[in-house]
Amino acid sequence: MTHASTHAPKGPGFAEFVCLIAIMMALNALAIDAMLPALPAIGADLGVANENSRQWIITAYLLGFGVTQLAYGPLSDRFGRKPVLLTGVSIYVAFSVLAAFSHSFELLILSRIGMGMGIAVTRVLAVSIVRDRYEGRTMARVMSLSFLVFLGVPIIAPTVGQLVLLVGPWQWIFWVFALSGSAFLIWAGLRLPETLHPEYRRPIQLSPILQAFGEALTNRQSMGYTLAITAIAGALFAFINSSQQVFFDVFGEPQMFALIFAGIAAGIAVASLLNSALVEKLGSRLISHSALIGFIGFSTLHAVIAVTGHDSLWMFSILQGLKMFCFGLTMGNFGSMAMEPMGRIAGTASSLQGFISTIGGAVLGFIIGQSFDGTTVPLTVGFSVLSIIALLLVLWAEQGKLFKSRHSSHKPVT
User: Fold this and answer.
1) What distance in Å separates the CA atoms of residue 382 and residue 283, rounded to the nearest whole number?
2) DSSP string, 301-325
3) Where are the alpha helices (DSSP H) in 152-192?
4) CA distance 67 to 29
5) Is 277 in a helix, a strand, or coil?
6) Whole-number mean pLDDT of the chain?
7) Mean pLDDT of 381-409
């Protein structure tokens, strides 16, 4: 039995479609994680004395990435997915080139905001394009498989950044971004069909847009899982913000950074592969709710170890890997469940959900990152607090019931 939409348009086969969605998502991961080994070099070259201030290179990108998602949803619902996608990625490529020519920290930050504003289109349209073609557990499987391929990028991205630094200056990393974005533009331009059904096109008028936003904001299931994603994303962004300083400054092992970061990211990839194999049999809720409880357990244990002064490089790496394994079992499923009631307004709903989770997650991650004090305590305690908040939000979304689907999930918030 297939869960694909009966109106699914012709286009690439299942495997190529998954790869297109995965690469679309991976451009974003590459633009974040490949930067991490270069932060000290950028800081030294552009005169950034405060190490915590370098985190703006990550946060500025995330803020740009979050804010424009509100626009891409309505635009894609009006003009179609493909032209909006190609325009956004073109903006990303242009600002990547500008970043490569940046000779001041201020211009680099502006370029990073522009990169995020452009590539945000992939966050909105990856989910919307999948929702156009699939639904239910098959949609969750597509997202999980895409997430798996996408997660190959965080595994290798810091190594890519380090390799580039071995042969050239940090500016060359931005040329890698520009070239990879250009390659995707060619592939998508040739192979990706328009997936928005003509009868679902919505005019760009304030009233319908506000109505769609209102529908998404007042749906208990959609908003509960969106806010849970925000909390979990905040933990992830905190780790990304702090990871270079943790390995370089806390543990004094910069040469281990790319290798251990890859191992931690591999934990997410393994979890996503496992999820794709089990989600249609066990369901999104059983898997993701169980993983969230595991996430809380590992996060709280790590916080206790850090606060009592017993954290070490290998303890940190193992527990962070376990947390990221649980992360891989939650995020794709949470995203699918947030979108389940939003089929009629998939583009607009996805843009609102992306705006909330990215901006909120970036702010939470930045707050934790700026609390870095030369130890792992702020990061580990932040993980524990945010994971518990995520559980409370899931309980609210499911009206206090975990693991099983609710038939009332399409009712608005009361």
Assistant:
1) 29
2) HHHHHHHTT---HHHHHHHHHHHHH
3) 152-167, 171-191
4) 17
5) helix
6) 86
7) 84
Q: Is 393 exposed, middle or buried (0-12, 13-18, 19+ CB in 10 A)?
A: buried
Predicted confidence at residue 143, as pLDDT, reads 72
Give me 113's structure tokens. Answer: 């905001």
Asked if 59 and 362 touch (Cβ cutoff 8 Å), the reply is yes
Mean pLDDT along residues 248-260: 90
Asked if residues 347 and 123 have their Cβ atoms less than 8 Å apart, the reply is: no
Q: Counting Cβ atoms within 10 Å, is residue 67 exposed (0-12), middle (13-18) or buried (19+)?
A: middle
Q: What are the φ/ψ torsions at residue 393 (nearest 5 degrees)? A: -70, -40
Amino acid at 197: H
Q: Which residues on neighbouring strands pair with residue 134, listed in sequence order?
A: 4
**Residue 147 identity:** F
Q: Which residues pair with 4 in a beta bridge?
A: 134
Interval 52-91: pLDDT, tens: 899 999 999 999 998 888 888 778 888 888 999 999 999 9
Apex 286 CA angle, 394 and 283, nearest 5:
115
pLDDT > 90? residue 317: yes
Residue 137 · residue 240 · CB < 8 Å: no
pTM: 0.83
By CB atoms closer than 10 A (0-12, 13-18, 19+), residue 186 is exposed
Are the beta carbons of 148 and 279 closer than 8 angstroms? no
Rounded CA separation 68/350 (Å): 12
Q: Mutual orientation of helices 56-67 and 220-245 as an angle, nearest 10°?
A: 160
Residue 95: closest CA among 61, 53, 51: 61
Structure tokens at 63: 């803020």
Separation CA 159–CA 95 (nearest Å): 23
Alpha-carbon span 125 to 87, nearest angstrom: 12
pLDDT of 3 over the 50 cut: no
DSSP helix, strand, coil percent of the chain (3-state; round to 5): 80, 0, 15
**Best CA proximity match to 248, nearest among 116, 51, 108:** 51
Residues paired with residue 412 on neighbouring β-strands, in sequence order:
219
Mean pLDDT of 230-257: 92
- Using the 8-state DSSP alphabet, how is residue 103 labeled? -
- What are the CA-CA distances from residue 150 to residues 102, 235, 278, 279 (Å)? 28, 19, 19, 18
List the structure tokens of 266: 């591999």
- The percent of residues in the chain predicted with pLDDT above 70, rounded, is 92
